[in-house]
Amino acid sequence: MTLPFYVSPEQLMQDKAEYAKKGIAKGRSIVAIEYRDGVLFVADNPSSSLFKISEIYDNIAFSGAGRYSEFESLRKAGIQHADLKGFMYSREDVTARSLANGYSQTLGTIFSQELKPFEVEILLAQIGEQPEQTELYRIAFDGTIIHEKEFVAIGGRADAVVSALRSLGSGDVLDLTTALTRCMNALETATGQNVSLQSLEVALLDRTRTGRKFRRVGAEEASSLLS
Amino acid sequence: MPVSQCSSFFDFIHQTRPELTPAARWGSEGHVSASVDEIQRHVLSQLAHGTTVLAVKYEKGVVIVGDRRAIEGYQVASRRMEKVFKTDSHSAIAIAGAAGPCMEMAKLFGIELEHYEKLDGVPLSCEGKANRLGQMVKANLPMVIQGLVVIPLFVGFDLKQREGRIFKYDVTGGKYEETEYHAVGSGGKDARVTIKERFRKNLSQPEAISLGLQAILSAAEEDLGTGGPDSFRGIYPTIKIVDAQGVRDVEESAVASQCDQLAQSRPGGES
């Protein structure tokens, strides 16, 4: 019998983290930003049918970057978790915090126990009746949760997008047009390329809506916002 | 976080949390030995559970109306029960039968449609929603044998065919499409007779609302289990309109004034 090679836990985790980061870095970026009536999501996504941003519950939206099959299964799990909770208790008892914890647990377990970690980053947003109640969470491939303020980005050039957004200003209440312009500018700065509305996926959590707050913004509506 | 690959919430709770499903809670054991006669008598006696809910087509969609009374035997259990529910942007459901399971089915069906829409990214077709409801009624069969009947009336606006549609169901989940109108519940027959006398194609929306209210009034006069308009307490039938724009409520004040007008112009009010 041959002994298996000894690999130190540090080395193992480092290798896994590197592998996951590499996978995520290949993907495009997604950004979420608070605006006057809620949260705006903008994703660099040329496909008009395979979405990266989606609705989880009345006032909660999800977005995933990285490997499609992996964040898609996490998205489904999130919807099932939320609908089950809302059915068992009440619609107001479904919170992004509990979902973010669930994702963190799942991703953390997969990262430490499976051979191949998930190559994904998750962005969760929840809006409340007041602007102060907005919550933004970023969940990394190893289950780390980061609670963000104002804006957050995930995916390939997330850091570059965030620093570009920061340079455009912070702390002020934005209207939808300004928020969208800033997101597009930040994506352009980060990628160094022109961004067209046709290759963007835009969605909103809009607190002025009744019932379900999530809504997609088509290319036509987005261009009329910008004009 | 459990992941299930199906797009159905109903199947999802069956797989992961069977104790939450309606049929599982009541089970089928205990009543298996009941004779067919006994079951039938039981079912029929329970079918008399009070309610009148109805749907009438008009030129641009469907009007769906429900009374507000719930009874327990000869007692009024509730005067303000809601029996008409919006289930998604373009569909609504009205339910007759045992109150608890009815409310549960309406809630579950609403979640079912939303769940599918979120997972698959597109809403179910009108036909798809109607079929799904049939399967849910069928899954309720063990409870029917115990006497807990749920009979829904489903109304949807078909965005492809550009028309309102009405579906009725039997206790086994059989789905039947109605082309003009339908009413179910203990006062259903009285309501149907009233509508039959005055129905014509391409009613306007106010005409359809008025016809629906007249049918509820007739049913309330003949049937103990159906509550008519109660101007003393300010309780009026619920009315929803389902058309291309979606589902919306008719304001209670509008229903109230309509009911008052109808009561005054009603023939044979004395008898």
Descriptive report:
Chain A has 227 residues and is of the alpha+beta class. Chain A contains six helices and ten strands; from the N terminus they run H-E-E-E-E-H-H-E-E-E-E-H-H-E-E-H. In chain A, strands 8-1-2-9-10 form a five-stranded antiparallel beta sheet. Chain A has a five-stranded antiparallel beta sheet with strand order 3-4-5-6-7. Chain B has 271 residues and is of the alpha+beta class. Chain B has one domain (33-265): Glutamine Phosphoribosylpyrophosphate, subunit 1, domain 1 (4-Layer Sandwich). Chain B has a five-stranded antiparallel beta sheet, covered by helices on one side. Chain B has a five-stranded antiparallel beta sheet with strand order 5-6-7-8-9. A two-stranded antiparallel ribbon of chain B has the order 3-4. The A-B interface holds A 49, 51, 54-56, 73-74, 76-81, 83-84, 86-88, 102-103, 105-106, 212 and B 1-5, 9, 12-13, 16-17, 20, 107-108, 111, 114-115, 118-119, 121.
Topology, element by element:
The complex is a heterodimer of chains A (227) and B (271).
Chain A (H helix, E strand, L loop, with lengths): L8 H18 L2 E7 L2 E7 L8 E5 L2 E7 L1 H21 L7 H18 L6 E7 L8 E5 L5 E4 L2 E5 L2 H10 L8 H16 L8 E7 L7 E4 L1 H8 L1
Antiparallel strand pairs in A: 1-2, 1-8, 2-9, 3-4, 4-5, 5-6, 6-7, 9-10
Helix pairs in contact in A: 4-5
Chain B lengths: L8 H8 L5 H5 L9 H12 L5 E6 L2 E6 L3 E3 L2 E4 L5 E5 L2 E7 L1 H22 L5 H14 L1 H5 L4 E9 L4 E7 L5 E4 L2 E4 L3 H11 L6 H18 L15 E6 L2 E4 L2 H14 L6
Antiparallel strand pairs in B: 1-2, 1-10, 2-11, 3-4, 5-6, 6-7, 7-8, 8-9, 11-12
